Amino acid sequence: MPDKVMKNDALLGEEGKKLFEDMIKYVDKYESKTGGMRPDLSYTATK
What we know:
47% of the residues lie in helices and 0% in strands.
């Protein structure tokens, strides 16, 4: 398991795991997508 996934799981703890299990009962389809940021499309707010 990747390090990021392990860190997120540790951060969410048992409560997060239980919430995810409860949510997945009501989901028909689950997809995971990965990607990256495109600096040319980014937005930086000015004050």
